[in-house]
Design a protein that fits this description.
Helices cover 41% and strands 27% of the residues. With 124 residues, the protein is an alpha+beta fold. The protein has a single domain, classed as Aminopeptidase (3-Layer(aba) Sandwich). A five-stranded mixed beta sheet has the order 1-2-3-4-5, sandwiched between helices. The protein is globular.
Length: 124
């Protein structure tokens, strides 16, 4: 399930976000976390099953788009559908008010997840 980022989860969130190639640098990672803490249009969530396994970041743009700008899953838990579950949860949370999409870093993954959902729904 998605849980909203809190300062108490800072080290875990930084660890999860560091799996994204553009967030490898510690200073960049610290800036990103500070932006999520300070900017009301940036929303960071962690994915919890038994443990915290993933992170997903959303940026509200122009009061009409919810842009997924970070998606990261602990490498030992990849290929288990966690990224797709996070994308689905963000869609459920934001789709009534915003157009949910990815940015240049996440767009292909977001579209892939949406295609899987559409295929699953067409089988019903």
């Amino acid at each position: 399930m998605l849980i909203r980022y809190k300062k108490a989860f800072e080290k875990i969130a930084m660890g999860l976000l560091s799996f994204m190639p553009e967030e490898k640098d510690v200073k960049k990672l610290q800036q990103t976390i500070k932006e999520y803490e300070a900017n009301e249009n940036w929303h960071l969530y962690l994915w919890k099953e038994e443990d915290l396994l993933g992170a997903i970041g959303v940026r509200i743009e122009d009061e009409e788009k919810a842009v997924i700008q970070h998606v990261s899953v602990n490498p030992s838990h990849r290929h288990q559908g966690i990224g797709k579950k996070m994308i689905d949860a963000v869609h459920s949370q934001y789709a009534n008010q915003y157009i949910v999409c990815g940015d240049e870093k996440t767009e292909s993954f977001v579209k892939k997840c949406e295609e899987i959902v559409q295929k699953d729904q067409s089988r019903l």
